[in-house]
Structure formats: structure tokens, C-alpha cells
Q: What sequence folds into this?
């Protein structure tokens, strides 16, 4: 190993010589273009770091062996948390750009055409990796319309692979949790699988078992206790009069074949809800943190989009963006729509009070803690 | 003067004994209710401070003598800046509430009905004072539907008085700035005042002079220079093909009788635009900071509403709020709509590049600086 | 249950009527005194909340049964994290006070004498509860010199009870971890217990066993593996030439009777180091988060003290504080000295690279994960 | 002008390919090294931007013609404010690095030797440009001991030129303000210039006039009013008994030849104090903002150093830093000592209550406002 020097290690010759203002090329004085370049480079550096973290958590979640007892689960939790911390700084960074007034921006704005933040392929690729589906994109194809083919290819590839959200679904489906009743139906719930007119009980049962998570502690640990029917009744009781039709949503989310635009199956939803309800047990603590970190990331992304939109509006008003976009309108629609983890957020609607939670059988409880040395 | 003690001075006996959790009254354990109470009390304390600042700036702006040379202008700028700083902390404070998970909230949520943050009259009163008009409220009367009469009265009173925004308009109208051409029309602009079919030139001119700001440095200082016609031409040239119809908006904003739902007259808009364009001159620096601080406040309010909405969604999903509101939907609509100072923000659309700005006559320039001692 | 109204629930009549500026009593205009009062009230509200959290974690940690498998451990972790989040906002809040210029403060400063933030008994009580010892206080008795007897009593009581830090020590001592070698000594370490000149092997062994944590997985699980001798050798190898005398500190921290001004015993230090080294195992994840949160709290408190000191300096320069303190000097000394959890922070000095960590015996590893359902 | 593309404009090929982890070269897995590289690159990018702003304000302040009425003064104020905003984000960024635990750092730490953040020449150069003198550096030559000659040369050059602080001094000396009494002495002040034993009145007067600022509004505007003697008396009255020897400092700061390690002359100090006292007048508003922004920058730098120190301590404890430094100790000493603008901060000690301020003569007041058009 040879000696390392800070300047070389960080390749500062590259980093600090990568700012070539267009205004300088045009012999026009525009002091703030340097800020404009540097802040975007800082953003792209951090986007690279976000990819580094996202790739690592995708890599871990892809392992079929990953379960609730895997040591790597905490690595996933830790890195998702880091992503949220980074996003907070990226939001804060907007404060810096807002010290550039609209008049200062006009000094060089026209020289940038048609470049635009809309061409940040790293950001779009990140959204795709995490799980923003093409179908959910505002304006569909529009979002790649100004990208280079090589970058479009990267995004299309990410969209064609399992997103992080899809991997979370698969992991949840593997999680042992409360089983469906053996008879194949939760009391009061309409036909479990609604896509097949020719159901008979036998078929139904086999389908149920296919769509059931493995029972926590083994089916025997649950005895006769029909958790989901009990829970559904408790949830129903908790609803105010005006909320009564939430029960249909409840069935749809947890016991039906879900429409294809959803990523989470009802099986995964059941495991996720169970984690939220019983996170008090040691075994469920990290899974809960994982889900919570996803909501945190979504919220930070949402705030980022919101502040970005306001900033753009403050900067250019109703003028056309340098990339030809109508600026604020696109950003607003995207901000309203692009919640990547909304299927998790939505589960909050189906919680009940802790003191009304069904008591778990002792044999199940035992499996939710650590081995005790005795 | 007698000795003052910190504990008494701050009335800590009152402050620290004002937390009576409903859960305690009901003998139910709900650790996080204390947080819920304290954070809302902290918010209301800060709202009181925001009112203290808002009342003081309204008081100053109400003085008819306040002009661009008034020493109090910097007090206004300073206090508006403080309001923005406070709002930033209030946004940050949401982080604390988000450490309460939905399950923790459910421990005491039902006991609070029908109380709700929607009953924070101080916040609504603040919006009204600053200039959010009743007509712009999402859901109109709805926003006061759960308030007590005494608080509704306060808000209605504020709405019936001159809001801060109205006072800013009046101050701008008093500001000396570039005059309209004496012939009463900016070249290429349609009839200046469109409400009167019987216009003849004489009437028109008297109306113009009524609606004109006093000319900076006196009319003589401007000589033959027709600033607004020159500026309009420059603006028109700066528009991209797809933006060409902005020129109609330009006329509407700066030279026409404005529709009644606007607070700013075209006269005020002209003064505000002039300030934005020529803020480089000493005299216009504080007025520029004032306008900029209003945009900053609006942006912080916007972020606050946005994060609040996301937080509520994360906490209760699609359940009905404790106040019976449909929660997120109302908050979303209010967040989208309630930009108090949007008429100022919109002026950004009408700026042009600094190097294409009309050069002001020397005699005018002189009046934009300080007296020099010689 | 009767209807609850936001205004009553939060006792806003109390909260919003607890501001009585001295300047108003003296008929002197001092706009910023309101800010001064309200920000201190907001601080005290949050201090109350910090006490609410601190009391709850102290209550949990006091249970002798609390071990690494207790469900409540995550409650402790969660609430410590909340305390850190609150402290971040309290630091941010200083930004607001800094919008008050020194001249604005002078408008009412003299009327407050001798009141001073130094009389905030809640803050000192919090430090005491968490574990700041009287002996470590800068200026010893000085810190209570301006408090009322009732508040001094509260602090003295907290100092006489087990602090949170002491309870963490006790919990760590109960944690099963790597055992000391049965022969009673770690190779190359000087007399294990240095207080007793008449040691013979028999005595020593009994003392060792008294001071040893219970072995993780039972002593049998460790076989012949002498973890601490192995680890000490690895640590020694990792030291640069100039760091060689760290090995003495190593012995002192982990294998000797510690001087009485330390809170953590060598037994607790060993458990804490083991947690830091092997946090990758599920069982150690929450204990690691707990320790990490304490460092986070200490760092936030440190930043708070630092910014507070700078702010006071900016406000009053080298003048005497309203409480008669020499202002900045006391604050600086306290900031330098009052790291409550420094004994934990110090353990970082004794880590080694992960890839050089001793491999734990399989039988031990098994006890570090969850029961697997098979 | 050819079309510009975001990717090329930002030179992302360079920026995103400048991360070459040492661990990868050594075939060792160290996930967090990427974070370590990227965060330091982000810091260096922002340091470049800080230099861009610092160079521009130095350039403006260097113009001998810059006075209180210069339009560029607001550019200086605006850019100093931006520097403070950037520094806030840089402080926040430490949160990200703190998501790297000490064990994660150890994965690659040894491979970096002897590189260290201590080799960030941009930061040291920035300190030098702003005004941190070589004599004030903790450890004197030590701070450049690990830099390359080319970077040492840059710093030495900056130290040999007028720093921003020096230019602020020169600007303040040019500012018209309250004159010294014509007789050459402020009542009760010891020999005005203490370096010359042979003073006679004539010499003294000529020296006074050399060291006096030009009188605001011309000497005639002040009539017989001896501002400084009046102010000194008022200040003296404001002192508490224990503060009485502040009056000596007062003389030393405002009326004596200052020791050479100070940058600010007594002449500059007088102008600065006058600005702080009478910032209410329009003319003094921007100068006040300028001084205030310098204090803000110093405070942010101080917080940055403080948090950096804590972070390093948390990361490596009492180990030796990769650069061979004793880590925390150096950082602590530097943090305690390196307040660049402390001479301005110190002036706060010499303010008095606004309502006791000497009333300025009408003729002087007139020159503190704008030309009024009439």
C-alpha cells in the first residue's frame, strides 16, 4: 500500500475542475452560474450515493433466504435510514439555491437551453429501482423524453427487474405470520379469490394454502384461534358510522386477489399489518423499522418534490422551463402522484387500538422472542 | 423594580401544569398523549409570537406616511424575516410528532373527539391577517365551522379589515416609480381602463393620472423616456414562441383594471416589478427584501401545510380525523390553494435579463441613492 | 366521555395568557421581550417532555428483569431516539432567538435582573437524571446557587438515586456476554483486582466470578475459547507505534476495579464493547441502538450548549449576564466538561476491524439469533 | 450557441467517475467507503463555491471607492448571507457521516493513511482569505505541515494579501461617522495616541485628524456636539459595579493605537459601533447587515468545527487520526481559537440601551436617509 493523499484520493483535480459556466464561454458576467453548476453536481453526487445504498439493499433483499432472523435485515434498515438522512440534507440544500433570485438566474438561464433538471437520469433511475412503476408516472413516456438512449436503457432495465418494493413484497410473503383459517375463508369475507367462477371448496383450500404465509410457530401453535376473523371483527367495531365502508377495503386489501397495478399481494399486506400491530415483540422490531423507513423515505421524497416545485415556481413563475417543460405543472402532478410506498402507508387505515388487539397464543408468543439461555 | 425570578417571569407554574391527558382521566395508559399535548401547546405559543410580529408589521404598514425612506421599513423587513425563521422551526417540529407511530396515537386518539387541530383559531386568524381572503378558502365557510363564536368573530374582523397584503398594495401604490406615458397609454396595450365605454381622451388622462404612481424624481427627471412602452417591448422580445400569449397577461397585470378577486392593483404591480428589476439601487433594496420575505413566508407556510398533510396521512391513513374531517383531502386542497402572496410570486413571470434592462435616466438614478456629503 | 375541544384540551387560556413582559409593566416599549418570553416557555415545555421520556426510560431500566430479550428494550430505544429528535429542534430554535439583535435585547435586559436561563431547574434536573454527576459539574455547588430550595431538592434527590447511566451500567452487567477465562485472568493483564494486596488464586477466582457477566449461551458454549485474551491480542496488534500505551487503558477499562468517579464497571464495559463489536447479530441490535442513542443525545446536548454559548456571547459580549454570571466563560466550561455519556463514547477507542474480529463459537452464535420455527 | 445537455453541462462523466475506493483496490469489502468519498467531495465542491463567493466579495471590497452608498454593498451582503446558508447545509451534512458507525469506518480506515481531512487546503485557504491570521492559528506552522507546496503557496499568498477582514477595516475607516472632538481628546480618556512620548497639542491634533473618520454630513453638521465624550459617559453609567473596568477596554478599543495583532483600528471600531447603534437609519442598514452576516458566518464556522470535532471523537475515540494528528485535541483547540471575526463580535460589549442613545443633530440625521423628491 502506498501513501494516500487526500487531494488524490478524492480526485479533486477532476471534481474541482468540472465547472465550465456557459456564461464564461459567452463572455457574459453571471456570477451565480457557478452556484447553479455546483449545487447540481452536489445533487448528482448524492444521487450516486443513494444508488449505492439502494443497490446494496436490493442485493440483500433479493436473497431468497432472507427472513426475519437474517443478520442482514439490520443492514437493510440501517441503509434505508441513511437514505432518509441524505434526503433530508438534499431538501435543506434547496435553501442555498433559493439565495439565487430570479433576476440572477435570468443572467444565464437562456444559455442553458434545452438542458434541465428534468434530464437527471439518476433521479428517475432511483425512483424506478425503488419501485415507482411506469404506469404510475405522470405523463407516462414523457419522463424519459429528454434522456439519452443509454440512460433510458438503464431505467427501462430497472423497471423490468424486481424493484425494491417488489422484493419487499416477496420478503413479506415469506414472513411467518398469523395463518388464514384452514377452511379457507375469513368470516364475513366474500369469496376469497374472485377471479375463478368455478371454485369448489377443494380448489379454494389449495389456493388458500398457496396464498397463505407460513404460520408463525407452526400451525399447531395457533390451535383453534382464528386470528384474521377475530381481527376483522375488532376492526369493524372500531369504525365510526361514516367509515363503515372501510370494511370492504379491508377485505380487498387483505383477502382478495389484488388488481395488477398493485405491487403488494394480500399475503404481503397481511404480514405487513401483523408487523405493525405486534412490533412490540423482538422478532418484529426490525421488520417494523424497515417498513417505517420506507414511509420515511417516501415522505422525504415528497417534501423534496414539493419544495423543488415551489422553488421552480418562485424562480421562473409561469415561464417555460429551460427544458421546454411547463415547469411547475409537471412538477406538481408528479409530486401529487409519485408516492412509491403508498401501499404500505395505506395500511395505517386498518390498525386498531393496542388494548383491543387479539392476544396471541402463548406458543406463538414464544417464537417472537429470542432463545433464552437456560 | 423588584427582583425577577426566571420561574415566575415565565409563569412556569401555569405553563408546566397545563397538561391534563384525557387518557389519565380515563385511567388508560397512553404515554404519547403528553407529547401530543405539549407539541400542540408549543405550536400555539409560536402562533402567538407570529401574531405579535404580524400585528406589529400591520401597525407599521398602516401608517399612510410610510414610504420608501421610512426607517420603519427595515423593522418590517426584519420582523417578516423572523416570521420565516419561526416557520422553519415549526416545520422541523413535525419531525418530533412523527416519532409517534400510528399505533401509539391510537392509544388515545378516540378520547379526543371531536377536538382537532382544525380548531386552531390562531392559525386561521394569522392567515386572515396576512391576507388569505375568505373567497380563496377551500370549502369557504367550512374552515370556521368548528370554531367558537368568539374566535370566529376575531377572524371575521380580521377579514373585514385591511390585511397585510392590502397594506402592501397601498404602500406600493404610494411608491414613486416609473410613470405611465402622459398620453395615457402604453404602446400596443389595449384600452387602459376597460370598464368605461364612454372614454374620451380627457377622461382617460385624468384616470391615468389617478392610477399612476408618483414619478420617481419627479416627472421631469424622466424627460421623454417612456419606460413602460420600452419595457413592454423588451419583455415581448424575450418570450419564446410558446410563451407569446404572456403578453396579454402582461397587459392585464400592469395596465388594466384588475378583477376584484385580486388584491393588487396594476399600479401596485408596476411598483413591485420596478423594485424587482432595479433592486440594485440602494433605495430599492429594503423594498425588495420586503417582497422577498413575503415569498419566503408563503413558501414556508406551503411546506408546513404539505408536511402536515403527509404526517396526518401517515398517522391515520384514510380514517376520519378526530374532528370529523376527511383528513388528508381537506389538508391537500388547502395546501394547494392557500398561497397568500401568490400575486407577488406571479410577477416573476414578467422579468427580463438584467443586461437588457432599460437604462434609467441619470436624473432618476440620482434619486435612487443616498444623499452624498459634498 | 364528554366532547373535547382543542382550546380547552390544550388549556390555551393558561398557555396564551402567561406572557407578562416586564417592559409593559414599566411602560417601556420593547417589542422583542415577547419573543424572549415565548421562546423560553417553549424550551421549558420541551424540557418537560424530555423529563416525561426520561422518567419512562428510567422506570423501565429500573426493572431488574430487563434483559436483552425484553420487549421493553425497544420502547427505551424508541424514546431515547425521540429525545434526540427533540434536542435537534431545540438547537434549531436558537436560530429564532438570534433574530433578536443585541440592541433589541438591551431594550429590556436590565429589567430582568437577576433572572437568567441559569435558573432553569428543569434542564439541570434532566442532566442529573440522565447521569451527570455532581462531581463533574463545573463549579460544583455553583450550578444550584440561584435555584429555589424546592428545585434544589429535586435535583439532589435525582443525584442521590440511580441515574439512567447507572441503570444502563446495571443492565449491561446483567447482559450475558463473553466470559472471563476461568483461571481468573486475561493473559498479559496485570492483577485483575488491584485493591487487595493479599490476593491468592482462590480469592481471585471468586472475585472474578462475581465480576463476570453470565456467559452467553452458558459457559459450555464457549469451550476452551478464551475470548478476552484473544481480543486483547488482536487489539494490541492493531495499535500504531504511538498508540501503544492504549493497551494500559484497555486493561484499566475492561479488567480492573475502576476508580470511583466512573459510573461504568469493567464488567459493564465488557458487555458494551461486545455489543459494539457483534451488533451484527439480531440479539445485539437493540442494545447497540440503545448505546448509540445515548451518544446521539450527548452530542445533541453538546451542540446545544455550544450554540447557546455562542449565542450568549453574540448577545452580551463580555458583559455580565442578567444572573450575574460571567456569561460565556461558565457556559464554555460547562460545554467542555458536561458529556454525560462519555464513558460509552470512550469505548470506541478499543474497537478493531471487523474482519479481524474473533469468530464466535457456533454454540454461542446460535444464542444470538431468534428461535427458528422448525 | 449549441444545444446544452444537463449531463455534459455538469460534466457528470467526470463527477460520477471520480470515486475509487481504496478498499476495492485491496479487494476488501467496505461498503461505507463510498459514502466517505462522496461526502468529502461534496464538501470540497461547496468549499469551491464558498471561495467563489469570498473572491467576489473581496474583489468588491477592494475597490477604494466603495462607500456606504455603493450599489455593490448589497451584493456583498447578499453573498455573505449565501455563505452562511451554505455553511448551515455543511453542518447538517455531518448527520450523514454520522450514520457511519465506528466499526464501519474501521473497515477501510487504515487504508487511507496518511490522508486526512486535515489536508483540505481549500478550507484553510478560505479561513486565510476571510481573515484568520497565521499568528492566531493553533499550532502555528502545523496547519500546513501536511499540505503540498502548491497549496501552501496559495495560503501564504492569501495571508500576505489583504484579507476580507482587513478590507472591512479599510471600508469602515472610510465610512463617515461621528467625529472625534476637534481638541483631539475624548473627555476622560488617557493620551489618545500612546506611542509618542513627545506629544504636543499640534501634533496630537494632526494625528487625530489622520485617524478620524470623515464626519457624517460634514463637521459643521455636528456643531458643538461631542458625540464620543457623550457616548462614553452614557456607557460608563450603564456598567454594573463589577463591570467598571470595561471602561478601560472601551478606551483601548475606540481611542488608542491598537496592538498589532488586531486587524481593526480604533477608527474602524468607532465606525462599526456607530453602525450598530444607529442601524435604524436607512443609510446604515446595509452596513449593519454586512457586519451581522460576518458574525453569522463565524458562528456557523464555529458550529461546524464543534460538530466536526465531536464526530471525529465519536468515530475514532482517542485513537490517532489517519493523518497522524491526535484528532480531537487539535480540532478542539482550533475550534476554541479560530473565531475570524471576533473583533466585531467583541463590540457588542460596548452597546447601550437604545432609549439612552445620544440624539443625533438634525443636520446629521438628514444625511442618514434618502434624497426625498420634492
A:
Amino acid at each position: 500500500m502506498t501513501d494516500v493523499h487526500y487531494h488524490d484520493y478524492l480526485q479533486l483535480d477532476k471534481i474541482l475542475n468540472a465547472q465550465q459556466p456557459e456564461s464564461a464561454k459567452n463572455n457574459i458576467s453571471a456570477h451565480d452560474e457557478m452556484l447553479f453548476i455546483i449545487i447540481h453536481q452536489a445533487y448528482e453526487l448524492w444521487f450516486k450515493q443513494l444508488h449505492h445504498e439502494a443497490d446494496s439493499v436490493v442485493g440483500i433483499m433479493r436473497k431468497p433466504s432472507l427472513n426475519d432472523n437474517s443478520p442482514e435485515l439490520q443492514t437493510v434498515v440501517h441503509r434505508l435510514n441513511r437514505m432518509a438522512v441524505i434526503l433530508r440534507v438534499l431538501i435543506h440544500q434547496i435553501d442555498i439555491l433559493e439565495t439565487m433570485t430570479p433576476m440572477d438566474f435570468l443572467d444565464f438561464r437562456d444559455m442553458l437551453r434545452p438542458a434541465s433538471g428534468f434530464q437527471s437520469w439518476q433521479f428517475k433511475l432511483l425512483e424506478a429501482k425503488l419501485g415507482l412503476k411506469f404506469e404510475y408516472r405522470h405523463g407516462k413516456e414523457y419522463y424519459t423524453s429528454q434522456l439519452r438512449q443509454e440512460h433510458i436503457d438503464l431505467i427501462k432495465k430497472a423497471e423490468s427487474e424486481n424493484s425494491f418494493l417488489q422484493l419487499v413484497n416477496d420478503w413479506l410473503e415469506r414472513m411467518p405470520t398469523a395463518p388464514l383459517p384452514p377452511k379457507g375463508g375469513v368470516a364475513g369475507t366474500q369469496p376469497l379469490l374472485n377471479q375463478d367462477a368455478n371454485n369448489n371448496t377443494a380448489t379454494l383450500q389449495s389456493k388458500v394454502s398457496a396464498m397463505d404465509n407460513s404460520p408463525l410457530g407452526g400451525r399447531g401453535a395457533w390451535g383453534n384461534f382464528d386470528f384474521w376473523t377475530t381481527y376483522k371483527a375488532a376492526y369493524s367495531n372500531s369504525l365510526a358510522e361514516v367509515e363503515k365502508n372501510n370494511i370492504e377495503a379491508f377485505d380487498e386489501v387483505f383477502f382478495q386477489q389484488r388488481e395488477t397495478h398493485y405491487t403488494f399481494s394480500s399475503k404481503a399486506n397481511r404480514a405487513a399489518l401483523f408487523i405493525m400491530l405486534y412490533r412490540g415483540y423482538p422478532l418484529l422490531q426490525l421488520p417494523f423499522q424497515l417498513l417505517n423507513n420506507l414511509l420515511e423515505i417516501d415522505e422525504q421524497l415528497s417534501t423534496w418534490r414539493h419544495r423543488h416545485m415551489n422553488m421552480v415556481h418562485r424562480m421562473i413563475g409561469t415561464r417555460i422551463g429551460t427544458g421546454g417543460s411547463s415547469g411547475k405543472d409537471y412538477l406538481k402532478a408528479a409530486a401529487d402522484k409519485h408516492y412509491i410506498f403508498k401501499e404500505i402507508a395505506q395500511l395505517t387505515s386498518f390498525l386498531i387500538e393496542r388494548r383491543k388487539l387479539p392476544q396471541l397464543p402463548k406458543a406463538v408468543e414464544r417464537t417472537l422472542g429470542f432463545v433464552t439461555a437456560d
About this structure: The two ends of chain C are 49 Å apart (CA to CA). The CA atoms of residues 16 and 366 of chain C lie 58 Å apart.
